[in-house]
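Repro:
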Amino acid sequence: MIELYENLSQKDADLCSLVLKASFIPHRVKKDHRGFAIFVDEHHFDAARHTIEQYFMENRMAYTLPDAAPPDADHGYAGIWIAVFLAAIHFYVASTGAAVDFWQNFGASAARINDGEWFRTITALFLHADSVHLVGNMLGMAVFGTAVSQVAGWGVGCAIILLAGASGNMVNAFMYQDSHLSIGASTAVFGAVGILSAYQFVRRRKTGGAKSRPWLPVLGGIALLGILGGAAHVDLGAHLFGFLGGMVVGIVYALYGSGRITDRNQWIFGLSAAGIVVFSWLIGYLYA
């Protein structure tokens, strides 16, 4: 179910609910810290909106019809563009003939990260061992990164995926505390899976009740982690902590950010994420 109206008073919510009941349109009324909200199945959204608008017009109510709830953030395909950027970085590194040097200077070295070289938690996300490694992460980012951008918008989506991936590398380095070295965007890919799982969990808890089985998205994310993240020669710790980092970020976004991000803020978040990536690489070059 999706939001039809939000931030309603109890009087407005009761009235809208009565109109929908009279039209035999299934719906649900929920109360949170912002007030009352009305949810309908997405297939009934247009009919429900039209029915209530007609009621207010015909009865010339003394108060104004509340605004419809804002739709999900501007849809985008940020995951696909990120995947293209990953390919560009990989081919540039390969063309230098010094891929191993890049891994040593910019990879997620646990010992170096714990010594304060935080930039590695970000730069490591853009390095890959070979074409097979790259293609797998490109596909994962194109699918799950784009799904996050469909939920949060392109700018916020990029920012929270980057945050989940970097936090996963940071925690992984803290857990190893040694010369462990990892590279690849898979930490961010599983961060995106965690974001989606947590977001759907919160949405189902808020709108669906017990019948919606809110734990199913989380269990699905864990299953994906086990299937895709536990293969041989992969850094399971980075995948796990990327997923958990994404869960935390996804919960925060679902509770406090969903539906509140303007187009201007999408640009702010998107450019900030790009700036952090560029700054991290610059700091890495200075260290190198």
